[in-house]
């Protein structure tokens, strides 16, 4: 029997009593694994070997996982520091504990995101509590990290899955093929096999010399494994954002654009938010240590100041609280894209507007929230407003029903709400398709006179801020937004999720 050299090598290295993997045969023959695989399949077709296939799963620490295996998980370090600071008895300022835990940069967000999830305690209003009954020594994720470092098996699949979700470990799946000689293969070896010299490609030299007539070509195995390639794709959240934009443009809206870092004046003061409002503290928004904004129209600044201090109209009373130009000019990361609405409605951005007008934006905003399944530190807000005569709440509700119907959401619920800048105001809720719970998806209302008069707007304006990520959750049934956005996102979920149209 004459066989190609690679097949002879594999046949001689295989065993009739023991399964030998492709890797073992590759090491024994000196051939590449893909060459061994191709030869094994050809031998199986000839009935000389059997090829068994199994799936093997292994886990390996990422660079971040190795760091935490050495230094400790951020949430464990936060808990130990909290206990040392006495937070197991009374609340302790969060900044003090974070400093003592030596957490820096992204580690702070990671620690806070996992602290409550694991039952270590609570973080609220800038203070941290530690559960005295919690046991960091029993942390299953920390134990799994230690086991992977020691190259030991990890029996806790849930802990392994969580490490993968957090990007601390990679889950590797591979196909393991094992080869065993059949009786026919043993017989062929006993009778003797001659190696036939083969070539795997036709060269110009063979064509010129005519050698191609006398050589034996290696057959191609079109079923052999090929390296897996992961192509890039547009993130599902970005795809949803583009779909929202297309929908609003189709409803007659134009898109707004503007700075992510803006003055307190545009972000809050124009919205008739008092300067001592709790939402304007550093616990809710991110202040930047940069020079104050100089480019604010002086006449508009004075009208907004007057609205805060004296009110608007004959019955206006304003706020009985301090208002200073210095605070108005300070720079923050915008906590909502309503700062864009103020720029456009005032005429500062593209000139004076005449009703009717419709504008929208789908842009990032930044808030100092506690991370949980429905909250992130940065997220996308769907901002929109309509300027026209004689608008009512019915017009606003009808706009929402038309908009959300485009995404298959028809069970909206409305709840009265208070905002300093709209009256009347209401929140929107939608039912999660998997959990059945109501999820807040937006806030809306009719802009107050105290907002519109200083801007020079004399007609009605209805406005809203909707959460793009929560729309995504209702559309796809996700129950944790961190799976699709942020440092803990599930890459496999993003690759495999079929886009809805």
Automatic annotation (TrEMBL):
CDD domains documented for this protein: PheRS_alpha_core
Cofactor(s) the record lists: Mg(2+)
Enzyme class (EC, first level): ligase
SUPFAM superfamilies: Class II aaRS and biotin synthetases, Winged helix' DNA-binding domain
InterPro entries: aa-tRNA-synth_II, aa-tRNA-synth_II/BPL/LPL, Phe-tRNA-synth_IIc_asu, Phe_tRNA_ligase_alpha_bac/arc, Phenylalanyl-tRNA_Synthase, WH-like_DNA-bd_sf, WH_DNA-bd_sf
GO biological process: phenylalanyl-tRNA aminoacylation
Record's keyword annotation contains rRNA processing: no
Residues that bind L-phenylalanine: 338, 381-383, 421, 447
Keywords: Aminoacyl-tRNA synthetase, ATP-binding, Cytoplasm, Ligase, Magnesium, Metal-binding, Nucleotide-binding, Protein biosynthesis
Reactions catalysed, as given in the entry: tRNA(Phe) + L-phenylalanine + ATP = L-phenylalanyl-tRNA(Phe) + AMP + diphosphate + H(+)
GO molecular function: ATP binding; magnesium ion binding; phenylalanine-tRNA ligase activity; tRNA binding
Entries under PROSITE patterns matching the protein: AA_TRNA_LIGASE_II (PS50862)
Location of the Aminoacyl-transfer RNA synthetases class-II family profile domain: 244-496
Localization terms from the record: Cytoplasm
GO cellular component, as recorded: cytoplasm
Entry EC number(s): 6.1.1.20
Residue sites binding Mg(2+) per the record: 423
Main localization, broad class: cytoplasm
Co-factor note (free text): Binds 2 magnesium ions per tetramer.
Family: Belongs to the class-II aminoacyl-tRNA synthetase family. Phe-tRNA synthetase alpha subunit type 2 subfamily.
Alphabetical list of NCBIfam families matching this protein: pheS (TIGR00468), PRK04172.1 (NF003210)
Subunit description: Tetramer of two alpha and two beta subunits.
Name assigned to this protein: Phenylalanine--tRNA ligase alpha subunit
Source organism phylogeny: Archaea, Methanobacteriati, Methanobacteriota, Stenosarchaea group, Halobacteria
């Amino acid at each position: 029997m004459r066989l190609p050299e690679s097949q002879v090598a594999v046949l001689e290295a295989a065993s009739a009593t023991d399964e030998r993997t492709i890797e073992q045969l590759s090491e024994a023959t000196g051939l590449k694994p893909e060459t061994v695989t191709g030869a094994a399949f050809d031998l199986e077709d000839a009935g000389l070997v059997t090829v068994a296939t199994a799936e093997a799963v292994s886990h390996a620490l990422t660079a971040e996982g190795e760091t935490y295996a050495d230094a400790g998980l951020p949430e464990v370090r936060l808990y130990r520091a909290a206990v040392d600071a006495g937070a197991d008895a009374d609340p302790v300022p969060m900044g003090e504990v974070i400093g003592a835990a030596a957490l820096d940069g992204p580690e702070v967000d990671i620690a806070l995101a996992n602290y409550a999830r694991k039952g270590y305690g609570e973080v609220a209003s800038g203070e941290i509590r530690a559960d005295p009954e919690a046991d960091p020594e029993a942390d299953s994720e920390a134990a799994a990290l230690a086991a992977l470092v020691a190259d030991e098996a990890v029996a806790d699949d849930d802990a392994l899955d969580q490490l993968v979700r957090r990007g601390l470990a990679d889950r590797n799946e591979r196909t393991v093929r094992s080869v065993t000689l059949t009786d026919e293969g043993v017989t062929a070896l006993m009778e003797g096999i001659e190696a036939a010299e083969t070539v795997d490609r036709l060269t110009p030299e063979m064509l010129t010399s005519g050698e191609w007539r006398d050589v034996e070509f290696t057959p191609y195995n079109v079923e052999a494994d090929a390296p897996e390639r992961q192509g890039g794709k547009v993130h599902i959240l970005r795809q949803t954002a583009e779909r929202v934009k297309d929908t609003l443009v189709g409803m007659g809206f134009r898109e707004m654009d503007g700075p992510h870092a803006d003055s307190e004046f545009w972000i809050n003061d124009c919205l008739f938010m008092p300067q001592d409002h709790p939402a304007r503290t550093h616990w809710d928004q991110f202040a930047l240590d940069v020079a104050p904004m100089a480019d604010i129209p002086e006449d508009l600044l004075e009208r907004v100041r007057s609205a805060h201090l004296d009110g608007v109209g004959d019955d206006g009373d304003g706020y009985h609280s301090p208002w200073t130009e210095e605070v108005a000019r300070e720079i923050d990361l915008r906590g909502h894209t309503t700062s864009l609405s103020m720029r456009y409605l005032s005429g500062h951005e593209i000139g004076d507007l005449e009703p009717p007008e419709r504008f929208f934006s789908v842009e990032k905003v930044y808030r100092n929230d506690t991370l949980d399944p429905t909250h992130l530190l940065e997220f996308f807000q769907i901002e929109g407003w309509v300027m026209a005569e004689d608008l009512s709440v019915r017009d606003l509700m009808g706009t929402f029903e038309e908009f959300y119907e485009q995404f298959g959401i028809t069970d909206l619920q409305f709840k009265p709400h208070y905002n300093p800048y709209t009256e009347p105001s209401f929140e929107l809720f939608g039912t999660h398709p998997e959990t059945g719970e109501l999820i807040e998806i937006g806030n809306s209302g009719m802009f107050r006179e105290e907002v519109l008069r200083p801007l020079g707007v004399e007609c009605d304006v209805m406005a809203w801020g909707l959460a793009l990520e929560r729309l995504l959750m209702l559309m796809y049934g996700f129950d944790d937004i961190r799976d699709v956005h942020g440092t803990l996102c599930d890459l496999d979920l993003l690759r495999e999720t079929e886009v809805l149209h």
